[in-house]
Amino acid sequence: MDELVSLCARRGFIFPSSEIYGGINGFWDYGPLGVELKNNLKAFWWQRVVRERDDVEGLDSTVIAHPRTWEASGHVEHFSDPMVDCRTCKRRFRADHVDVPCPEAPKQRSVAECDLTEARNFNLMLRTFIGASEDAASTAFLRAETCQSIFTDFKRVREAARQKIPFGIAQIGKAFRNEINPRNFTFRSREFEQAELEFFVHPSERERWFEYWLEQRVGFHRELGFGDDRLRVRPHEPDELAHYAKAAADVEFLFPFGWQEIEGVHDRGDWDLSRHTEYSGKDLAVTDEQTKERFVPMVVETSVGIDRTALALLCNAYQEEALEGGDTRTVLRLHPAVAPIKAAVLPLSKKLAEPVRRIAADLRRHWNVFYDDAGNIGRRYRRQDEAGTPLCVTYDFESEDDGQVTVRERDGMQQERIALDGLEAYLRERLEARP
To answer: Would you identify the CATH topology of the domain 341-431?
Structure first.
């Protein structure tokens, strides 16, 4: 992880937010390469989950919802962790995480041996205020998950889109949790992005749709390039299930710090729609037009952590490779679907800059293309390897005469001469192939 974190900062993937002030724990900024990686991942998810299906609709809801939303969902009452405080160092720890070395004491002493207070619940919702006053009536919350607005907007979206059960509503957006101990780089943060699908089904079909969506989501992560050695499904044990859930499973990735969840698939039953019906007074049941049966739909949820999956992509792609002559190169073997830069266009000499800039401008109508004329060609290739760029296009002194360029492939470093008038088609075939 140390080498990957260093690469992320140096190359502008990810670095601490407010870094010039020393950063702020649990908050991260995505630089030029990182934002492209995340945007590509989100676009890939949206393409598979929304655009390729006629039974899923999209939504973009606000970060702040009516406070009653979080009372209905149970977050105000139950979304908390048991915490203890150390009277000596004044630090706060989760009550179930005290068997670790105390940061203010000799390494042989654990937090559990410190002078700790009794455990008490600490709500993880981040509060804010609406309006000029800061009283209880103006208190609001930054959303802790993106799904609740899907439930409150269920009736409006279903009617506007003229959808019938079964169908889903999908959303990508920011969520916020006041994590006590953010850790493992971007894996556990206080501000993060989720991509969630809530799929509404008839009660008699909840099990079938749960299995269907679990299979679909595993297939999505395999498309991203995660193999059997680093991807697994872990069904929840009965004592792990929420009281309203009939089934749940985590899609886990093997990070350098162990197996961790990157996506959850949950059978949420009718808990959410029933609770919002109760708290809002608005009936969210539906009527089957053919049978006239009236029922509250069950919900199968898929929830993927965008930041966690982006980190998994970087961990999965990172490699230090030995080359002939004792040299090494750092390479990110990212699939073109998520690679920040799709192709780099490189003049062999700055004297060739003008025609190469024209080539880059033409290609940028289709992909994110990077132009680079600084340093020798070998160093430029290495920089693109670190960025995960699948293909490099080199324009040399022969290109003016033969109308060809050299295309160099990242993973195997093979090179091929390609006619300029066929370059776009050549790149398209390799960059837009379905994973």
So the answer is: Rossmann fold (3.40.50)
